[in-house]
């Protein structure tokens, strides 16, 4: 009799047979999951790219919504080493004759020389004052040295008036007291008194003699007094400039209220020698923002066109071709770009009237610089009125995009939906793997059982063959 063949020991490759059967059963659902994953991942990537383009476009819009930049002023200074000038949008264009008569100075007085920072200075109170503030320090046995006095002044809780330091010179150590406020209003007055508040006697003419007891009167000072213990090292002085023949003083070197919208900062004095300061409209910064806006829009437009297009020749569709959210976004942007802005300048309430036109085929924007420049000459504030403000073009378009591009907008929702879909597909893949493991185990069990049966049948067949042979 012929021999019956089987698996394993009987000639059938059980492992290969089981693998092929499992692979055949896995193929269709695995392919479906992979296809869905690929589509979801492609769309997720497309929405991410679109979100990035929209965000860049919104950033360009945000920068355009800036009246200070769109309506900027530039300045020209005849002697920039003498004064720095800035102008805000409130400044009117014009020229001014300016001269810097003096700079602000900080009042400074100093004591006579002492024989070191540990030298005694006397005890009592020193009261410091200027036009705006006053405070006192008490000097006793715990701090009655030159260094102790310096530290007591600088650490006093109410001190907004003076800063003390010690300067060493050939004739000894001097306590230098410098006002914390520049200008005449910061002029220091230093009064010495005993612990009870009684004024200390003035120093003798010529100052203390060797052996005289130390006294806080050595640090007293009052402008114009003949009994000062301290010496004036730098007088308090206001800054002064003259603009078109009108004089203006300041305790600092800054002047912000001479001409509306124009700030002057004095740098160097040259009394009696005026020079010209000019303020003009500056459209260059605004034009750069418009150029950035056009570039960002064109990038967004290219992204939308690429994602939603269909190539009839290659029969290739964009990643979001036919997607309702993307098509609606494109439509909203187109409508906003073609809508006039209320409150804008006459004959400058649309992009096209500003010289920003749309290509009929590609939808891309371009700037007619000659037309825009001519408009800005006749209407310097045209760009600011069109783009900036709560009702301006930039704010209006950005508001229209919020529902799409904000964190809880449609683009984010679509992306989150795709991520959820990918997670679900991953769960399906895991479930398929688990099911295939069960099927593989079942097939292995069945074919191994068949192998055992065939082995038994082959044994029986051999026995019968032997018995029949013995009968012949």
TrEMBL record:
Every copy of the Flagellar hook-associated protein 2 N-terminal domain together lies at 11-107
Question: Please, which domain of life does this record's source organism belong to?
Answer: Bacteria
Q: Where is the signal peptide?
A: none
Q: Does Kinase count among this protein's keywords? A: no
Where's it found, cell-wise?
Answer: Secreted; Bacterial flagellum
Record's keyword terms, sorted: Bacterial flagellum, Cell projection, Cilium, Coiled coil, Flagellum, Secreted
The reply on keyword Chloroplast is no
Question: What are the residue boundaries of the Flagellar hook-associated protein 2 C-terminal domain, all occurrences included?
Answer: 236-458
- Please state the protein's primary subcellular location: secreted
This molecule's function is given as: Required for morphogenesis and for the elongation of the flagellar filament by facilitating polymerization of the flagellin monomers at the tip of growing filament. Forms a capping structure, which prevents flagellin subunits (transported through the central channel of the flagellum) from leaking out without polymerization at the distal end.
Q: What is this protein called?
A: Flagellar hook-associated protein 2
